[in-house]
Design goal:
alpha+beta; 5 strands; 378 residues; Alpha-Beta Plaits; single chain
């Protein structure tokens, strides 16, 4: 048994194990974390092509050459699809071009297996086509994934795959250490086959890390945000308000808050049902968020009450924001809503969070007492 064959056997078991691990994670992690199943299938396809390579000369070339190499290309394409699903990046390339890409690969392998048998051209074809797919994956990872440790590990694995293919392609072009068979004991062939045994576990680890990082971020988001409106929840809102107060006290900046309450929300629920009421809350949050700056934060304080944190904003500027809130309600549909608003402003280092909230609440009460759908400031 030659060293390349031993390496292929090791790579087979490694890829099978990595595929099983990814499949288990895909079944246990939330469905919002996409791409794991495709990554698992990619590792499985890579694993299954190795026995076909090893069985060369014992099974028809259609399986040991054409099908085996096609499975390898499809595996890398499946890995690419998984990364796109994970990152939420749509496939922009036309499906017809993808089909022609795969068809050209199959035709080349078929021609240089049956018409003009040439292992050097077949190796070059496999290296070149898979290199194109892996490079596309690398560009996608660098562009679409956040700079986390999982991304860094995946970039390292892809760089190893690319480097080995560039070196192999260069050796073929220069006529160095040319292969005479798939499993010959040449140094370049042995190194090329050893790469999967290293890169498959590294890539799998990177996929697991990426999924775990996204799971952690999703859990953090859920713990800090309201599930319906996607606004910060009350606890997170108070944390942010404390942070803004500390910043204002330290730098002497202005700070205003607005407490907003949807008018007659109980009647809306009774008339349109709770689902209708939920739609109003979502419509309110989406419309008023569109009127805010990037530094402003709309938070759901509870029920139909919201708090808006307005850094570097005085009373006059806050009143303009409130006016935009009222305008948003006047154009809402299919069910119109209006909002009562109370505004208070940070009054300096002697002020406190409780006092700031109390003044805003008092101003909101005045808006309701004076007929709703208006704004008062204290």
């Amino acid at each position: 048994m030659t060293p390349p064959v031993i390496t292929l056997i090791i790579s087979f078991f490694v890829a099978m194990a990595m595929s099983a691990i990814l499949l288990i994670i895909a079944q246990t992690y939330p469905k919002t974390i996409r791409g794991l199943r495709e990554w698992s299938l990619a590792a499985l396809a890579i694993a299954l092509c190795f026995p076909l390579f090893i069985a060369r000369d014992h099974i028809p070339d259609l399986f040991s050459i054409v099908l085996a190499n096609l499975m390898l290309l499809v595996a890398f394409m499946m890995m690419n699809i998984g990364t796109r699903k994970f990152s939420g990046t749509p496939l922009k390339l036309d499906r017809k071009l993808l089909f022609l890409f795969v068809l050209a690969y199959v035709v080349l392998f078929t021609w240089f297996t049956y018409v003009q048998p040439n292992i050097r051209v077949r190796v070059a074809t496999q290296v070149l086509f898979t290199l194109v797919v892996i490079l596309d994956q690398l560009f996608l990872v660098l562009r679409a994934l956040p700079r986390t440790m999982g991304r860094h590990v995946l970039v390292f694995a892809l760089a190893m795959m690319i480097g080995s293919r560039v070196i192999r392609l260069g050796a073929l072009m220069l006529g160095f250490d040319l292969p005479v068979s798939l499993v010959d004991a040449s140094a370049s062939q042995l190194v090329y086959f050893a790469i999967p045994a290293i890169t498959i576990p590294i890539a799998t680890i990177s996929f697991i890390m990426l999924a775990s990082e996204k799971l952690r971020l999703d859990l953090e988001f859920i713990s800090r945000h309201d599930g319906l409106t996607q606004c910060l929840n009350k606890n997170a809102a108070l944390e942010e308000l404390k942070r803004e107060i500390a910043h204002a006290a330290r730098h002497g900046n202005k700070l205003s808050i607005m407490l907003s309450d949807l008018d007659n929300f109980k009647e809306i629920n009774e008339t349109h049902g709770h689902l209708g009421g939920d739609k109003i809350l979502v419509d309110f949050s989406e419309r008023v968020k569109a009127t805010l700056r990037g530094s402003d934060q709309l938070t759901r304080f509870g029920g139909d009450e919201f708090m808006t944190i307005l850094p570097d904003t005085d009373i006059e500027q806050a009143l303009l924001v409130a006016h935009r809130f009222h305008e948003a309600g006047s154009t809402s549909h299919p069910v119109a809503w209006s909002v009562s608003i109370g505004i208070s402003t940070w009054q300096g280092k002697d002020d406190s969070l409780d006092a700031l909230l109390t003044r805003a609440d008092q101003a909101l009460y005045r808006s309701k007492a004076h007929g709703r759908n208006q704004t008062h400031a204290i």
